[in-house]
Write a structure and sequence with these properties.
The protein has about 270 residues and is α/β, with parallel strands linked by helices. It has helices at about 5, 20-35, 60-65, 75-80, 85-90, 95-115, 125-130, 140-150, 160-170, 205-215, 255-260; strands at about 15-20, 40-45, 55, 55-60, 155-160, 180-185, 185-190, 195, 225-230, 245-250, 265-269. It is built from eleven helices and eleven strands. It is globular, with a radius of gyration of 19 Å.
């Protein structure tokens, strides 16, 4: 009897696509034999661990959650919305990652500069998340619980805002010790007012470099050659490159099916 029909029935659904089913089966069998002690999970956050939409409405990303009158004024919202003209560039299949990269840096830098000008207060972030419609995907509790029970590291690499991301996970009561987050973190002054963003800018097309540099310093990853990689962007498969791991790539996506099938082992659409 096939593995998917017994152990992973969800993968038999018509919405689940695989370019090389036999390769995926072999990989999953190998990961099962190696056990939880050989596994690590690397995941994007916005629209991967969080839902894309609910009841016909888009679920906010970590940046979208900051669009709250508690944090930014109406003029800032308008300016940030104007910068969304960069999004079609990000998903343009006709442009290479090299062509997109400087524009992504320009986009994220401008957005962060606008947020800094708003002098966002740290003590208002939790309330902004609570008032938002942020929502993790169905089954998130089982996913996070099972990983922590088996002591499997979960590395979340996000081009979003790390402070907001943490608060979403915290308010859903799944911010466990095995969860590690690499993202754009705010730098607050002594009075709790945003003054800058910390470290190197992380955007859609440089998350691989961030993954490699930060993962190298995590002792929890030593001796874990198998990685389960989850993402919603064509930039996400690069997270696992050059990390010397066997990987099964799983993606939640609703459009550009063929492009994603060529990039990920498993596509759920």
């Amino acid at each position: 009897m096939k593995l998917f029909s017994v152990q992973i029935p969800e993968l038999a659904k018509c919405s689940v696509l695989m370019r090389e089913r036999s390769r995926v089966e072999e990989t999953i069998h190998a990961m099962q034999r190696a056990g939880a002690g050989s596994l690590q999970v690397i995941s994007d956050f916005d629209m991967t661990l969080t839902r894309f939409a609910h009841n016909g409405k888009r679920v906010p990303t970590t940046h979208n959650i900051l669009d709250n009158r508690l944090l930014i004024d109406e003029d800032c919202t308008k300016k940030v919305n104007l910068l969304n003209t960069y999004y079609p560039i990000e998903i343009d299949a006709c442009r290479t990652a090299e062509e997109k990269l400087p524009l992504m840096v320009e986009w994220w830098t401008k957005v962060h500069e606008l947020l800094i000008q708003q002098r966002i207060r740290k003590d208002m972030l939790a309330r902004a998340v609570e008032e938002s419609s942020a929502m993790l995907r169905d089954g998130y509790k089982l996913f996070f619980d099972r990983l922590t029970e088996q002591q499997v590291p979960l590395l979340i690499f996000s081009a979003g805002v790390g402070d907001v991301l943490e608060e979403v996970i915290r308010q859903n009561h799944v911010f466990y010790p095995n969860v590690h987050i690499i993202s754009n973190y705010m730098d607050f002054d002594q009075t709790g007012v945003l003054r800058a963003f910390k470290g190197q800018l992380i955007h859609t097309f440089n998350k691989r470099e961030g993954a490699l540099s930060h993962a190298a310093g995590l002792r929890e990853l030593q001796g874990r050659p198998n990685v389960l990689l989850l993402g919603d962007s064509l930039g996400d498969p690069d997270h696992g490159e050059e990390m010397n791991v066997e990987e099964t790539r799983i993606l939640k996506v609703e459009e550009r099916k063929e492009s994603y099938i060529n990039s990920f082992d498993i596509v759920c659409w």
